[in-house]
């Protein structure tokens, strides 16, 4: 039987979506090849489209099969590499972990991604940033309420879940927009706790092969 190929992650150091997957890979101690996609290069995005029809990162290639969308990739990793688990066994906690993950990944992040900002800034200089700040603030406000109600040491109880993988990228983006985060003490506490975990450190944008590209 042929040995399995090392999986490949097409990533960009500052991509929130790629960051989530990098954390999951690090937590589960999965060895992979990192391939940089320069998201500001039209040629790079065109080349990526031949692999992933959406021309987005992350794209995760495992034994010739291409998987896209960060949460779908993380769920695949959860099913194929159950240690360390990222979904609680309790059905309610499992649903809450997914709820928080989706709040960030589907309800907040898409509204301040690079493509949206570029389109809005073409219409009016600086409008993209104003638009992004509004929805990041709204999202953080909702997240703070959820975390106050359901968090322990981490977002849902006292073990890291899929919910936690979404918090550092969101806080990082909020800081890039120079938002005052003092109104979100629970978010800040959990983010600070996660920042001390080796897997989260390894996945941080500052520790990637393409760190600083287009900074």
**The number of domains:** 2
CATH topology of the largest domain: Glutathione S-transferase Yfyf (Class Pi), Chain A, domain 2
Mean of all residue-level pLDDT scores: 92
Number of helices: 9
Sheet having the most strands: 4 strands, mixed
Q: Structural class, from secondary structure content?
A: alpha+beta
The poorly predicted ranges are none
Distance from first to last alpha carbon: 45 Å
Q: What is the total tally of β strands? A: 4
Which value, in Å, is the CA radius of gyration? 17 Å
Give the name of the CATH architecture of the largest domain. Answer: Up-down Bundle
Q: Please give the CATH class of the largest domain.
A: Mainly Alpha
Shape: globular
As laid out across the biggest beta sheet, the strand order is 2-1-3-4
Strand content: 5-15%
Helix proportion of residues, in percent?
40-55%
SSE arrangement, N to C? EHEHEEHHHHHHH
Can you walk me through this structure?
With 215 residues, the protein is of the alpha+beta class. It folds into 2 domains: 8-84, Glutaredoxin (3-Layer(aba) Sandwich), CATH 3.40.30.10; 91-199, Glutathione S-transferase Yfyf (Class Pi), Chain A, domain 2, CATH 1.20.1050. The chain is 51% helix and 7% strand. The protein has helices at 16-27, 42-49, 70-80, 91-108, 114-123, 127-150, 167-176, 185-194, 198-203, and strands at residues 8-11, 33-36, 59-62, 65-68. The model has no long low-confidence stretch (mean pLDDT 92).
